[in-house]
Write a structure and sequence with these properties.
Layout: H1 3-11, E1 16-19, E2 26-31, E3 34-40, E4 46-51, H2 54-63, E5 68-70, E6 79-84, H3 90-106, H4 110-118
Pfam families: YjbR
InterPro entries: YjbR (IPR007351), YjbR-like_sf (IPR038056), YjbR/MT2646/Rv2570-like (IPR058532)
Protein name: MmcQ-like protein
Length: 119
Amino acid sequence: MNIDTFRDYCLNKKGVTEGLPFGPDVLVLKVMGKMFSLVSLDEVPLRANLKCDPERVIELREEFAEHILPGYHMNKQHWNTLILDGRLDSKLVFELIDHSYELVVNGLTIKLKKELEDL
């Protein structure tokens, strides 16, 4: 998967913004100001960090050991790094983006959830 496909998929979700708060090499995608994905723009192949349910983190790392790793520079219990070299099915990547987004949305305050609903 390339950066354009990954980025476009994320930006089509409600309330998502992008930025480069850690410098020009790390694209950060947020929903209502909360991070749900970080993408290393200078890595080849492309690498993306996504939030994940702690129980699912382990399952994914075991099943896709060469392509899903503990989250680089993130809390290893809640984040995975996906190596996007084309070997992970795009359907799985999109599902994991959705999962990360939903985890963050579910953790929003009532006020932010209402603002997101109203967008």
